[in-house]
Amino acid sequence: MIGKAIKYNLKNINTDLIIPARYLLNSDENYLAQHCMEDLDRDFVKKVKKENYQILVADSNFGCGSSREQAPTAIKASGITCIIAPSFARIFFRNAINIGLPILEFPDIGNIKTGDILNIQFEKGLIKNTSTAEEFQIKKQPSFLQQIISAGGLINFARKQIE
């Protein structure tokens, strides 16, 4: 996967910052995407579309707070195709995997800036920052998680298993 990064140097970005509770009455993913991260950055969705950002980089404990499934759904529907952070809240981590949104734990986000082009090789556990020519080894996800993500989420993965 190759994509352009948008970065927020903020720890503990919680699910209420990702998708505020006032928008949870509508479960349509496109509606949720319109309001993604707006309490953190009111122009997030516009920036993602205008600048063609695909990779969200944030600091530790991303997705903490309530266990709302809509948080990773809003991010994915906004156009983000991968999230990188030093750590994730466990429930957010699982919810992201369940919908097929790749997330990577990478402790050294200081070497990534907004606008950097990243080449992520999940199977090798490698991030190449093509903007700076740096390469970073990351902890590879177990193959079963990679299979779930590749299938587009847990439901699609389960369907393929019973076919």
Describe this structure in words.
The model has no long low-confidence stretch (mean pLDDT 95). The chain has a seven-stranded mixed β-sheet. The chain is built from seven helices and seven strands. It is 33% helix and 20% strand. The protein has a single domain, classed as Alpha-Beta Barrel (Aconitase, domain 4). It is α/β, with parallel strands linked by helices. Helix 5 links the parallel strand 3 and strand 4. The radius of gyration is 15 Å and the shape is globular.
Short description:
This protein has 163 residues and is of the alpha/beta class. The chain has a single domain (2-162), classed as Aconitase, domain 4 (Alpha-Beta Barrel), CATH 3.20.19.
Can you lay out the helices and strands and say which pair or pack?
Blueprint (H helix, E strand, L loop, with lengths): L1 E7 L6 H4 L10 H6 L9 H8 L1 E6 L11 H9 L3 E4 L4 H9 L4 E3 L11 E5 L4 E4 L4 E4 L5 H8 L3 H9 L1
Parallel strand pairs: 1-2, 2-3, 3-4
Antiparallel strand pairs: 1-5, 5-6, 6-7
Name some characteristics of this structure.
163 residues; alpha/beta; seven-stranded mixed beta sheet; 7 helices; 33% helix; 20% strand; globular
Number of strands: 7
| CATH architecture designation | Alpha-Beta Barrel
Please give the domain count: 1
Instruction: Provide the CATH superfamily.
Output: Aconitase, domain 4
**Biggest beta-sheet profile:** 7 strands, mixed
Q: Could you tell me the strand content as a percent range? A: 15-25%
Query: How helix-rich are the residues, as a percent range?
Result: 25-40%
CATH topology: Aconitase, domain 4
Number of helices: 7
